[in-house]
Amino acid sequence: MWSLLAREISKQYGNDFRIGSEILAAEYNDSRYLRVHGIDAYGVWPFPVDFYQTEGIHGIDERVRADWFLQGVALMRRIVRSYAFDPLPPRPSG
């Protein structure tokens, strides 16, 4: 899954876009309930965010730039489509 995310994010935003934790979110999500059942959960913001936009997450004035949000929707569609329909990569030998 990480390879799929990295590939699609690079396609969307270019190779200069960093993949990984640039901004550590201060809020919680429900992935902790999935992980205890053995389900891998990735925290993905599919759209670019900057520090100032993260300040409003789960606040009364929560927002993301509309153009960035729409880019994220397109990215997530490609990720889901690829995950569902692309052939699996070969398993490493050994």
Describe this structure in words.
This protein has 94 residues and is mainly alpha-helical. α1 packs across α4. It is built from four helices and no strands.
Short descriptors:
mainly alpha, 94 residues, globular, DNA polymerase, domain 1, 4 helices
Q: In terms of topology, how is this protein built?
A:
Blueprint: H1 2-13, H2 31-35, H3 51-54, H4 66-85
Helix pairs in contact: 1-4
Q: What does this entry show, briefly?
A:
The protein is an all-alpha fold and 94 residues long. It has helices at residues 2-13, 31-35, 51-54, 66-85. The longest helix has 20 residues, at 66-85.
Would you identify the regions where 5 or more consecutive residues have pLDDT less than 50?
A: none
Percentage of residues in helical conformation: 40-55%
Biggest beta sheet summary: none
SSE arrangement, N to C: HHHH
Tally of individual domains = 1
CATH topology: DNA polymerase, domain 1
For the record, the CATH class is: Mainly Alpha
In the CATH hierarchy, the architecture is Orthogonal Bundle
In terms of DSSP E residues, the strand content is under 5%
Distance between the termini: 20 Å
